């Protein structure tokens, strides 16, 4: 790996407090650009100019990369070159005035309330695994947290007496999120009667653990969601993020204000949250067309 990419990696981990997934994306993008730079005769990524970067972005588009992928690469390059500029490694930022391609607003896929009910009823709560799985699904829909945030929860991040969880603790995205009675009830059952059957080490602090008594992985949780989706026979591509989207859309459809939903989701910019208002507007149009006699 290029020396300056390594320094940037250390900076992100030490000072920016970004999630591991974000850091990995930045570094992966930079490694790919570093490889491209070397193939074009540069000894270091810090020698790149704006022309080479533009050529690289065109190359990404020609090889079929999506608009969102190209935009993310621009964000990674901007952050990196701002870092090396501030460190005095380069004298001019080659990404200044670099424009991101315009992205079409793609509406996220959501579940109806009935589909959510069907999915959440799939785990068999007569067994420990079923109780754990239902607790995870209920909590995901009740709070709107990301899958990575869910599996990162520790036992002491849950306050069942006050009906809230503490998500993304010790990061810039830390937030307190209220949860409803159904999530509280199944979490109480899981923590009091079933988590102890899975945990092998009394020092284990993870809220959700696997059969080995260790913190459940993101991949493991995705497999669980896929399994219940297949079992529920819902004809949609459901991922853990689908429940997050459904959480936000259902809150707005039922009268929640945009600012509150933004805070619960942990969006830095309210424009990110506004995408869910488009779903609400589409829903109103559907109701109108079905119900109005002259629609």
Automatic annotation (TrEMBL):
Q: Where is the Tyr recombinase domain?
A: 106-289
Can you tell which superkingdom this protein's organism belongs to?
Bacteria
One GO location term (cellular component): cytoplasm
Q: Which residues form the Core-binding (CB) domain?
A: 1-85
The record's section on PROSITE patterns has: CB (PS51900), TYR_RECOMBINASE (PS51898)
Q: Where's it found, cell-wise? A: Cytoplasm
Molecular function in Gene Ontology: DNA binding; tyrosine-based site-specific recombinase activity
Q: Which residues form the active site?
A: 146, 241, 244, 267, 276 (o-(3'-phospho-dna)-tyrosine intermediate)
Q: What is its main location?
A: cytoplasm
Look up the signal peptide feature and give its range: none
Keywords in alphabetical order: Cell cycle, Cell division, Chromosome partition, Cytoplasm, DNA integration, DNA recombination, DNA-binding
| Family membership | Belongs to the 'phage' integrase family. XerC subfamily. Belongs to the 'phage' integrase family. XerD subfamily.
**What does the protein in this record do?**
Site-specific tyrosine recombinase, which acts by catalyzing the cutting and rejoining of the recombining DNA molecules. The XerC-XerD complex is essential to convert dimers of the bacterial chromosome into monomers to permit their segregation at cell division. It also contributes to the segregational stability of plasmids.
Under the subunit heading, UniProt states: Forms a cyclic heterotetrameric complex composed of two molecules of XerC and two molecules of XerD.
Which NCBIfam families does the record match to this protein?
PRK00283.1, recomb_XerD
Q: What is this protein called?
A: Tyrosine recombinase XerC
Per UniProt, what is the name of the gene that codes for the protein in this document? Answer: xerC
């Amino acid at each position: 790996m290029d020396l300056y990419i390594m320094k940037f990696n250390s900076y992100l981990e030490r000072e920016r407090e970004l999630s591991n997934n974000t850091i990995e994306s930045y570094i992966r993008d930079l490694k790919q650009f570093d490889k491209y730079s070397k193939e074009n005769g540069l000894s270091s990524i810090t020698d790149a100019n704006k022309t080479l970067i533009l050529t690289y972005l065109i190359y990404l588009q020609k090889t079929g990369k999506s608009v969102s992928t190209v935009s993310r690469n621009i964000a990674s390059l901007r952050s990196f070159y701002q870092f090396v500029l501030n460190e005095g490694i380069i004298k001019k930022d080659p990404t200044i005035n670099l424009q991101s391609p315009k992205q079409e607003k793609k509406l996220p896929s959501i579940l109806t309330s009935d589909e959510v009910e069907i999915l959440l009823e799939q785990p068999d709560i007569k067994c420990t695994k079923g109780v754990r799985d239902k607790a995870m699904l209920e909590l995901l829909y009740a709070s709107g947290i990301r899958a990575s945030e869910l599996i990162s929860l520790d036992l002491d991040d849950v306050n069942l007496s006050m009906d809230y969880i503490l998500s993304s603790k010790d990061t810039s995205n830390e937030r307190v999120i209220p949860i409803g009675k159904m999530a509280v009830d199944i979490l109480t059952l899981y923590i009091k009667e079933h988590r102890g059957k899975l945990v092998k080490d009394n020092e284990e602090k993870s809220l959700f653990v696997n059969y080995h008594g260790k913190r459940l992985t993101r991949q493991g949780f995705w497999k669980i969601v896929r399994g219940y989706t297949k079992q529920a026979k819902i004809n949609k591509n459901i991922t853990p993020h689908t429940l997050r989207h459904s959480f936000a859309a259902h809150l707005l459809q039922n009268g929640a204000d945009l600012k509150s939903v933004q805070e619960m989701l942990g969006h830095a910019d309210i424009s990110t949250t506004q995408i869910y208002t488009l779903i609400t507007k589409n829903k109103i149009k559907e109701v109108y067309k079905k119900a109005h006699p002259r629609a």
